[in-house]
């Protein structure tokens, strides 16, 4: 009855249901937790500037790349062309891409296991059970960042699609092109591109001409965009990478971030279930059916195992996913983690779970799936962080919970801050100034005279700031996510992760203010800041980001991008003046 009988008629729909269930479930869970982060609204302003004809900038007149996810930004531009609500497109587009990533991962698992089985004895497709998918579906951060307006959904889709292509079409130039897109999805995903492209080479073993063609296909778009980035923005990376010091090492803080993610959900428990099933499975697969040389008889010398050529296309995608996932986690730990709970570990976790996303319905794997399933029910139903809706003691936030509370809305997409009076009052003040069409500079809620024809607002909640400031005005932030001057200031030790920089108000008055100084500010400090802005590397930074983009300026931006990206200056205006201008100390 195993072929053509009633059992097969039931088994085929069951196979499809198990394969599609993860994508359907994340679609439901993500929709129930839909929201828009403040950082998601940073993308929205840049997209509005593009659609208004001002170019891919956050503020007209200053070339700053505030969007970490380049491809995500341009996908939102495409969504906005016919007039779609950009914030809604970011939320629901991210959700659909997350579900697509889960579906592509499941398809890749099916192709991997069926190809493995067919290479031994042709049989009907086997029944596959969700295992790694259960781990992902149980975690609240996965539900939260299925939307959020950020590039996480695109990253999930790209990783799932890239892995599927690596499994199914390792010899295709189209596969090389897709694998090379990692740094345009997120700069740190260049690690994944590098590992996956190496795995493609191991699987395909192309000629030197084929290898060059593959390298050209993989690098064409990222290299072209990097040249554009260097010439247009004058930097090697998006401005948030400069702000957050993506090249620094903050291991202790990174391990704190790791514990904040793995501890509350007892992630070691599903890892044990997977390992318990994986070790005997790997041993059986590698040392059976002639794929590796079998263990020698006791009387014969032990030869070194040799990898059969047929094994490479099956093993390379598995090892590539694991290696890439480990590298992603190591990088996140190295740079000190992030201020959003769990977010930066999600791409690496997805990669680590790809080889076991779906597993064969053998006794060992089924036992593991049951164990992980029980953990998943407990985790999804009750395991939570201890600071829901708040910023935790380590500066790590339940980001969705914070904005749900501050907006007094279960699904905050367009932020009103009905539960946070300070932000709501700031928004009212800035909008009123914009309607009056008069120059104004807001230092938080303190309004002073501005050296601009429109509204300039200096406020830490940058997404909100960008929403309320007119497109011909300037929405600036002291952290430097979209403000080159703040991004290149020195990091302040001990501050909250992701908020390590805070440019003093004197710099804003020197850069954008006019007229008499407000009460509480010292003339000598503002004057020192004004002089520093005209000296050395700081003057060159302003020319690179605000000067007319002539061919000569583009070329100088490209040549100077490495030094400009690494340039930092002291927060204190008096020290900055002495360092940049050579002025004598008072």
Automatic annotation (TrEMBL):
Transmembrane segments: 12-31, 86-107, 127-143, 175-202, 208-228, 265-287, 307-332, 344-362, 368-387
Domain Terminal beta-(1->2)-arabinofuranosyltransferase C-terminal: 447-559
UniProt KW keywords: Membrane, Transmembrane, Transmembrane helix
Taxonomy, superkingdom: Bacteria
Protein name from the UniProt record: Terminal beta-(1->2)-arabinofuranosyltransferase C-terminal domain-containing protein
Species name: Streptomyces silvensis
